[in-house]
Design brief:
The chain has 185 residues and is an alpha+beta fold. Helices cover 45% and strands 16% of the residues. The relative contact order is 0.15.
Length: 185
């Protein structure tokens, strides 16, 4: 594989509006090393340069994709007043560990296996059929617009398990980490 000139790294990174830290993470190298490469203070090993260019290429290939193009329109959700038992059954059926909590089509929280198990362990929940989801729900998932570009979604999913997509204020889809992986295959 013939690599482009190293001077292309900084130009392409800026063109894609990426920080050195973001590109370094994607290429699995340190940010200080990337800074030295961009300032021509060091010549990287071939494998490191290759990883940088492959990361840039994967972003360029996926650039132009938006949340609307990769989101799943089928959302498994519960409402705040549903019994905790319903959330557990849905998580088991769908093989997921957390479910968005929606009220009037808007994100109001998140219910997770971790929160349920913690409440059971602490004695906060005694009857799964009577305890309501709003007693245990956590902070909701981030909500983004359909037009949100893919590179911004990558950043959000570094810290979250999923993001919800809203259309005119109503939740219309969800993107998980596995949905993002599909964009690079």
């Amino acid at each position: 594989m013939q690599l482009p000139e190293l001077t292309e790294i900084k130009r392409r990174r800026k063109e894609l509006e990426l920080s050195q830290t973001e590109l370094a993470k994607m290429a699995n190298i340190s940010q200080p090393l990337l800074a030295k490469i961009e300032s021509n203070q060091v010549q990287p090993a071939y494998d490191k340069a290759k990883r940088i260019f492959l990361a840039l290429e994967s972003i360029q290939t996926s650039q132009g994709l938006t949340a609307k193009q990769i989101m799943s329109k089928h959302i498994f959700a519960v409402s705040p007043k549903d019994p905790v038992k319903k959330a557990i059954q849905l998580m088991e059926k769908q093989a997921v560990s957390q479910i968005p909590v929606l009220g009037n089509g808007k994100s109001v929280g998140l219910i997770s296996e971790k929160a349920i198990l913690s409440a059971i362990n602490s004695g906060k929940i005694i009857d799964l059929g009577k305890s309501k989801i709003d007693e245990l729900m956590e902070e909701g998932l981030p909500v983004i617009a359909e037009e949100t570009p893919l590179h911004l979604i990558y950043g959000l999913l570094e810290h979250q398990q999923a993001v919800l997509i809203a259309t005119k204020g109503k939740i219309s889809g969800i993107i998980t980490k596995s949905d993002l992986l599909k964009t690079v295959l």
